[in-house]
């Protein structure tokens, strides 16, 4: 999968308030049929090492 198919997100670490930049693959989105499942990705804060889980459709 190329970088063009990814979305950059920034979230705050709940432990140290640092900004965490992550790249998530493009998902199918939410549809009316309800067939799309929530997906997740784990990442760690580069400042304190706190593990975060990011969820997306």
3D architecture notes:
With 57 residues, the chain is mainly β. It has strands spanning 6-12, 19-25, 39-44, 51-56. The chain has no helices and four strands. The strands form two sheets. It has a two-stranded antiparallel sheet. Strand 1 and strand 2 form a beta hairpin. It comes from Halopiger xanaduensis (strain DSM 18323 / JCM 14033 / SH-6). This is Small CPxCG-related zinc finger protein.
Overall mean pLDDT stands at 82
**Fraction of residues in β-strands:** over 45%
Largest sheet: 2 strands, antiparallel
Q: Shape from CA axes?
A: elongated
What is the count of DSSP helices, taking H or I runs of 4+ residues? 0
Radius of gyration: 13 Å
Total individual domains = 1
Helical proportion, percent range: under 10%
Strand order of the largest sheet: 1-2
Distance between the termini: 17 Å
The SS-based structural class is: mainly beta
For this structure, the quaternary state is: single chain
Uncertain parts: none
What string, H for helix and E for strand, traces the elements in order?
A: EEEE
Work out the number of β strands. Answer: 4
How would you concisely characterize the structure shown here?
By secondary structure, the protein is an all-beta fold.
What characteristics describe this protein?
57 residues, mainly beta, two-stranded antiparallel ribbon, 4 strands, Small CPxCG-related zinc finger protein
């Amino acid at each position: 999968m190329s970088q063009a198919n990814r979305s950059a997100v920034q979230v705050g670490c709940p432990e140290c308030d640092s900004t965490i930049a992550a790249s998530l693959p493009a998902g199918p989105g939410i549809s009316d049929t309800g067939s799309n499942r929530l997906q997740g990705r784990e990442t760690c804060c580069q400042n304190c090492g706190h593990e975060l889980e990011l969820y997306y459709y």
